[in-house]
Amino acid sequence: MTIAGSGAYLQAWRKSHTGLIVLDLSLETHKVALFLDTLAVDFDNDAGFAAAPFTANQVSGAGYVAGGITVTGTDWVVGPTRFLKWTASPMVFGSVTIAAPGIRGGVFYANALTAKDAFYLADFGQSFPANGAFTLTPPSGGIFFFDMT
Question: How many Å apart are CA 130 and CA 124, to the nearest integer?
């Protein structure tokens, strides 16, 4: 399946909850890499960023560095209606040129872990080219959230 919605990569979360890895989302070592719509997504089985399917379909173009950029300003925020959101500072890729069909989504992964476990895919809803300054600004509801009700 290609990118058709945001979601959590279950292998990273399972390994975190069973003590096989420490997935500390307050760290400033995680990265986000940009992908084409043709990324083959398998939320149940995809795991390490250094392996398929992440080794193909990453965007390329002038100014874009394979592997993406470090996510900074990470924070957990508790909302008034019992939700817990993970957010970060705007992610500035600098000046990039990505030709059509362009960027469709961003894969967040734990760069400090040996397997570079992917833990979340943000689907941007449609593909778009980029030519110039490119910044991802997290939505007000966070990059992802948990409803604790």
Answer: 13
Torsion of CA 67, 114, 29, 146, to 10 degrees: 100
Number of domains in the chain: 1
Q: Tell me: the pLDDT tens digits for 99-117?
A: 988 999 999 999 999 999 9
Q: What is the pLDDT of residue 1?
A: 57
Token pair of 140, please?
């007000």
Model confidence, pTM: 0.94
- List Cβ neighbours of 61 (8 Å cut-off, separation of 6 or more): 96, 97, 98, 99, 130
The residue segments making up the domain with residue 106 are 7-147
* Pairwise CA distance, residues 58 & 40, whole Å: 11
